[in-house]
């Protein structure tokens, strides 16, 4: 599924063990899902191994609740020589009314790696 946020790369449901003492889902849990989704898209663009080098503009917009179905969207934001920035949005589908709630957003930058784990030029886009 694709919209202005990009493609849905993951759909996940948090477990009771992912809850903090406020009854919300740990921020680290959703960050991890975002990193996984971004890594999938970046790895496809890089056609190989990538590593997360930076996260910019990370925003936790609304609390995430047990029972939320979390969709993680990803969209290429910009491409450099060895790095690609992926905009990631996490959105919850909540309750019987299928309400959509914006949870988080951020821009994750991934670097393409060679076999020595050093930066490697990205393949030309569209090739
Ligand atoms: C990723 C890594 C190999 C990059 O090595 P480096 O020596 O910093 O590489 P460079 O300085 O040549 O930068 C490589 C690219 O990253 C970009 N970059 C580096 N730091 C950045 C930052 N803070 N924000 C955005 N982009 C950044 C550079 O602009 C460059 O992109 P470009 O070639 O498209 O212009 C190294 O930092 C590393 O191994 N980091 C740990 C990665 C990791 O363990 N991640 C978590 C688990 S996946």
Automatic annotation (TrEMBL):
Cellular component aspect of the GO annotation: cytosol
Residue intervals of the HotDog ACOT-type domain: 4-116
Keywords assigned by UniProt, alphabetized: Hydrolase
InterPro entries: Cytosol_ACT, HOTDOG_ACOT, HotDog_dom_sf, Thioestr_dom
Matching CDD domains: BFIT_BACH (cd03442)
GO MF term (any one): long-chain fatty acyl-CoA hydrolase activity
Keyword Hydrolase assigned: yes
An individual GO BP term: acyl-CoA metabolic process
PANTHER family: ACYL COENZYME A THIOESTER HYDROLASE, ACYL-COA THIOESTER HYDROLASE YCIA
Family: Belongs to the acyl coenzyme A hydrolase family.
Protein name (Swiss-Prot/TrEMBL): Acyl-CoA hydrolase
Organism phylogeny: Bacteria, Pseudomonadati, Pseudomonadota, Alphaproteobacteria, Sphingomonadales
């Amino acid at each position: 599924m694709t919209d202005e946020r990009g493609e849905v790369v993951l759909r996940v449901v948090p477990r009771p063990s992912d809850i903090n003492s406020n009854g919300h889902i740990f921020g680290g849990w959703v960050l991890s899902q975002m990193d996984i989704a971004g890594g999938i898209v970046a790895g496809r663009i890089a056609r190989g191994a990538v590593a997360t080098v930076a996260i910019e503009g990370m925003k936790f917009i609304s609390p995430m609740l047990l029972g939320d179905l979390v969709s993680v969207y990803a969209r290429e934001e910009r491409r450099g020589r060895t790095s690609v920035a992926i905009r990631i949005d996490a959105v919850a589908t909540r309750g019987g009314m299928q309400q959509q709630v914006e949870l988080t957003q951020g821009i994750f930058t991934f670097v393409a790696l060679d076999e020595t784990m050093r930066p490697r030029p990205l393949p030309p886009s569209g090739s």
